[in-house]
């Protein structure tokens, strides 16, 4: 049976509209934040990797992944928090553990609750498998418990928390979940009235052996956009991406992008949904790995046709630019495995920005203070040493923070 796939700028020159594009010059990463992520493996320190970013409402940044320290003497087990100046928050240090290679791959915030998901058995020494609710100080919310009893059979890749509930997606085996469930935000109990089982192939009799995987989710209006590796969801044929109601019973919308393959990343901007992954869509024009679609119908925008040549694992919008991470490496001109594409053009990669990651980029985020963050399996950016985490200067945009204004 399938296992869950892990999917799931110092030197940047800000160009004015009239400036010529620079071609193929590498874009080196910043020195801040200075994270040196490492994992302890059989008594040896090896490069770690950041796998998910989430900016808190107060501007601080959560970083989840597979690591046991963020630098010499700075132990952090798979989740840390950066203050607004880029330094590590010394007061936030939850400990995620497990019998295997523990990791945090999904984060969501609603109110004063942090929901973290991934592959783990314990948090702060207490049994919490695959998903946990934390307080803002990193302590466990004791009244909220995971419905799962075995981490190996339940790997969480995406979480969305709304007023309707906490939606958890991944490779889920227990509780007849099979890809996607809704949990009670106060207790963690599985909601039996909201059923959206995924299946790898279309079948009238859903089963665990045919289960699909959910890798990415977005909340739009009162619905969810759900991406992953499936051919059927909530008993309706949809391949790779679907739009569902947040309300129960689940309604599968008419939204149908017509892709053939896996969706690993989703982004929402300008009234359109960006869909990245490992897929192909036939027709004229053809699309592979990245497209943008109408949020109601799923119809692709035929005027915006990227051609990255290989898998897309991460998407992140800043202003009128979408940043893309993945496995692509031979796309000229532009970045290897990390690139940016203007949303106002035809989908071409911006040749003026080329961070040149040495290996797969799996996560992208931004601090809303002129800094882009990238995480993944790379060990260098622009030939500079970076263990699974890199930061880049980008144009600062206006962001609205609320509460805790004085946090550094």
Description of the molecule:
The protein is mainly β and 408 residues long. The protein is 0% helix and 40% strand. It contains no helices and 31 strands. It has a 3-stranded antiparallel β-sheet, with no helix packed on it. Strands 6-9-10 form a 3-stranded antiparallel β-sheet, with no helix packed on it. A 3-stranded antiparallel β-sheet has the order 7-8-11, with no helix packed on it. Strand 29 (380-381) and strand 30 (384-385) form a beta hairpin. The N and C termini lie far apart (46 Å).
Topology:
Blueprint: E1 38-41, E2 44-47, E3 49-55, E4 61-66, E5 79-82, E6 96-97, E7 103-110, E8 113-119, E9 122-123, E10 126-127, E11 131-134, E12 154-162, E13 165-172, E14 180-183, E15 198-199, E16 213-220, E17 223-229, E18 232-233, E19 236-237, E20 241-245, E21 260-269, E22 272-281, E23 287-293, E24 312-318, E25 321-326, E26 338-342, E27 361-366, E28 371-376, E29 380-381, E30 384-385, E31 389-393
Antiparallel strand pairs: 1-2, 3-4, 4-5, 6-9, 7-8, 8-11, 9-10, 12-13, 13-14, 15-18, 16-17, 17-20, 18-19, 21-22, 22-23, 24-25, 25-26, 27-28, 28-31, 29-30
